[in-house]
């Protein structure tokens, strides 16, 4: 299939392996449910893109060998590689080998991933070599390419606040052009939850994530406030 491809990185929602920094305010099972909500919201944002082929790049395990836990029919490819950089390199090569023109890879655990944000990534790829969707903590949620560039994804400081800066430095060193989208926030820590719930005040947000976190918002807010305050 020619054209624009969106690969959504998703991993098996095993207790104790997803959203672990939220365990002070959520049980391990609740953290898994929250991760499922975030993945579904990302998938819904992707499906609203016209002319884009969406695929889940899935990191499976024995308990969750496929994506049936999402309750959705989705085209899936298994992630391959021992660390994130290798998995990203494989994902890009896999899509380009299937004659994709523009390939965007996005994570699945940020509540502010939206259809317009994703659409802009593909629009910018008609003008530049690389598109990056930063996170507010110094990393990034999204990277888009017009052809494979393994050197952009090799030996990088994954899961650190240095990732975006070093990626932009690598892009310049390789002589590539780049466009950075508007940064969006993670939902990884109690402070993130506190901030996110504050953004929902007075708004009718109908996402899975918003509904899940506001089902018992008083308790979640209080726990998030206490934990975030103790870590400040």
Task: Provide structural commentary.
The protein has seven helices and seven strands; from the N terminus they run βαββαβαββαβααα. It has 232 residues and is of the alpha/beta class. Strands 3-2-1-4-6-5-7 form a seven-stranded mixed sheet, sandwiched between helices. α5 packs across α7 (217-231). The mean pLDDT is 91.
Draw up the topology in text.
Blueprint (H helix, E strand, L loop, with lengths): L2 E9 L16 H20 L4 E8 L16 E3 L5 H14 L2 E7 L8 H10 L5 E5 L5 E6 L17 H11 L4 E3 L9 H11 L7 H7 L2 H15 L1
For the structure shown, list the relevant keywords:
7-stranded mixed sheet, about 230 residues, globular, 7 helices, Spore Coat Polysaccharide Biosynthesis Protein SpsA, Chain A, alpha/beta, 7 strands
State the domain count: 2
Give the % helix.
25-40%
Second-tier CATH architecture of the largest domain: Alpha-Beta Complex
Order of helices and strands: EHEEHEHEEHEHHH
Strand order of the largest sheet: 3-2-1-4-6-5-7
* Overall mean pLDDT: 91
Could you say what the CATH topology of the largest domain is called? Spore Coat Polysaccharide Biosynthesis Protein SpsA, Chain A
Total count of helical runs of at least 4 residues: 7
CATH top level of the largest domain?
Answer: Alpha Beta
**Estimated structural class:** alpha/beta
Q: What is the strand content? A: 15-25%
CATH homologous group name of the largest domain: Spore Coat Polysaccharide Biosynthesis Protein SpsA, Chain A
Envelope shape: globular
Determine Rg (CA atoms, Å).
Answer: 17 Å
Q: Number of DSSP strands?
A: 7
The profile of the biggest β sheet is: 7 strands, mixed
Uncertain residue ranges = none
Amino-to-carboxy terminus distance: 49 Å
Assembly type of the chains comes to single chain
